[in-house]
């Protein structure tokens, strides 16, 4: 499965960023082989609709699931229309790095986001 | 002459002053008041108009014909506001992100997009007992963008005839008073655009000074002459006077902090009904504006 994780830095060892639409990077990782590439988030400069843009971008990159901290309603709608699974990093663990989230995903420990988690004003 | 009454935040006394100005002006000239605070218009509470006309305000949003769409993605590519997403073989439209620029409709190679009007608010207009022509914009609940309503309000009434009537053709002397939304954001800039003069209502507190600074920044950028009115004078010690002197902003009027006034205004009484002794000062302010603006 191709997993996209919202990240503060540009490697799998960098810190996770909980903001979906406003995370500086996404690391796209193959959950079986562990192979990864890092993609700068093209939505970063967006005036509005950053979440929509980021969601569309990840879909076009072939991602099948996303790990982030929160999804705005528009990002959530776009991700689901594109058939991506939306997963949530565990709350209260601020210092996570990308590799730890990959491990948690492999262990089946990540919770699915049942709905948009906030009103979208803070990066969704 | 177009005068905007603005202030940093709600509750500063902006509407109180705007309505008082309108009432005094109406004694000698034709007055129009535009309540530009489309999220919470309240000039009508003080002026008691009889609404006699109005109109829906719409903005165009794209709609996609799924039969024609090939999900090529061009529309989403050209949308600067990310209001469109082409995923899963279909186009998603997010109305509240759309600015109605029309690019997507224009670019679609299959002509699969057309525009439909989405109602975002309405304009209400009418006359007050003293003959003031009052119009207000009302943003529909949940609509994120007030600018279309504000623009429609500024161009009210929407007939082609009146749009072409120049200011000089209006009964003279003629004055338009715009009650600005609170704050210093886009709607305030839009309200200020096209104005001849600005009155900034503030209170002598640290918050008041902070808000005043922000609005003054915009006013100076637009190059508009401005006057300051201090409301609730005596409530705080913030150095408003020093700031105004430094910026070259004349302080045109001071309304002292008075319990009697505050209570009357809270009951929806206008300033002049509650305190008629302010009439000369307001008239003086009006004359001053008129002299300095037309003297240019
Ligand atoms: S540009 Fe036209 S054909 Fe292409 S995805 Fe958009 S609506 Fe469909
Ligand atoms: S009209 Fe303009 S802003 Fe609205 S969806 Fe089309 S391209 Fe985007």
From TrEMBL, chain A:
The UniProt record lists the keyword DNA-binding: no
Domain Dinitrogenase iron-molybdenum cofactor biosynthesis: 14-89
Swiss-Prot/TrEMBL keywords: Nitrogen fixation
Protein name: Dinitrogenase iron-molybdenum cofactor biosynthesis protein
Automatic annotation (TrEMBL), chain B:
Keywords: Iron, Iron-sulfur, Metal-binding
Pfam families in alphabetical order: CbiA, Fer4
UniProt cross-references to SUPFAM superfamilies, sorted A to Z: 4Fe-4S ferredoxins, P-loop containing nucleoside triphosphate hydrolases
Domain of life: Bacteria
Residues annotated as transmembrane: none
PANTHER family associated with the record: 4FE-4S CLUSTER CONTAINING PARA FAMILY ATPASE PROTEIN (PTHR43063:SF1)
Organism field: Allochromatium vinosum (strain ATCC 17899 / DSM 180 / NBRC 103801 / NCIMB 10441 / D) (Chromatium vinosum)
Protein name: Cobyrinic acid ac-diamide synthase
GO molecular function, one term: iron-sulfur cluster binding
Ranges of residues in domain 4Fe-4S ferredoxin-type: 60-89, 90-118
């Amino acid at each position: 499965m191709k997993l996209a994780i919202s990240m503060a830095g540009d490697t799998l060892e960098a810190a996770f960023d909980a903001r979906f639409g406003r995370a500086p990077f996404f690391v796209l990782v193959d959950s079986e082989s562990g192979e990864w590439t890092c993609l700068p988030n093209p939505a970063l400069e967006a005036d509005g609709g950053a979440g929509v843009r980021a969601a569309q971008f990840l879909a076009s990159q072939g991602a099948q699931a996303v790990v982030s901290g929160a999804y705005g309603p528009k990002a959530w709608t776009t991700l689901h229309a594109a058939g991506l699974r939306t997963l949530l990093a565990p709350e209260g663990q601020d210092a996570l790095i990308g590799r730890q989230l990959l491990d948690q995903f492999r262990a089946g420990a990540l919770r699915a986001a049942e709905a948009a988690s906030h009103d979208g004003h803070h990066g969704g | 002459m177009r005068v905007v009454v603005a202030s940093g935040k709600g509750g500063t006394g902006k509407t109180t002053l705007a309505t008082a100005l309108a009432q005094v002006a109406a004694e000698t000239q034709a007055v129009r008041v535009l309540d530009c605070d489309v999220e919470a218009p309240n000039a009508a509470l003080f002026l008691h108009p009889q609404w006699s006309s109005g109109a829906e305000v719409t903005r165009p949003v794209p709609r996609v014909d799924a039969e024609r769409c090939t999900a090529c993605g061009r529309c989403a590519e050209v949308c600067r506001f990310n209001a469109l997403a082409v995923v899963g073989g279909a186009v998603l439209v997010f109305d509240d992100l759309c600015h109605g620029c029309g690019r997507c409709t224009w670019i679609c190679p299959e002509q699969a997009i057309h525009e439909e009007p989405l109602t975002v608010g309405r304009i209400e207009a009418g006359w007050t007992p003293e003959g003031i022509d009052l119009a207000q914009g009302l943003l529909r609940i949940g609509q994120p963008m007030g600018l279309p309503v504000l623009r429609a309000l500024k161009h009210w009434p929407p007939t082609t005839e009146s749009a072409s009537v120049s200011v000089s053709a209006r009964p003279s002397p003629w004055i338009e008073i715009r009650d600005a939304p609170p704050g210093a954001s886009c709607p305030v800039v839009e309200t200020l655009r096209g104005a001849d003069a600005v009155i900034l209502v503030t209170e002598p507190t640290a918050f008041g000074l902070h808000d005043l600074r922000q609005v003054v920044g915009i006013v100076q950028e637009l190059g508009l002459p401005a006057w300051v009115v201090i409301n609730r004078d005596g409530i705080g010690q913030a150095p408003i006077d020093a700031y105004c002197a430094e910026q070259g902003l004349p302080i045109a009027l001071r309304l002292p902090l008075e319990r009697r006034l505050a209570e009357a205004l809270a009951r929806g009484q206008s300033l002049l009904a509650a305190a008629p002794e302010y009439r000369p000062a307001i008239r003086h302010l009006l004359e001053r504006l008129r002299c300095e603006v037309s003297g240019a």
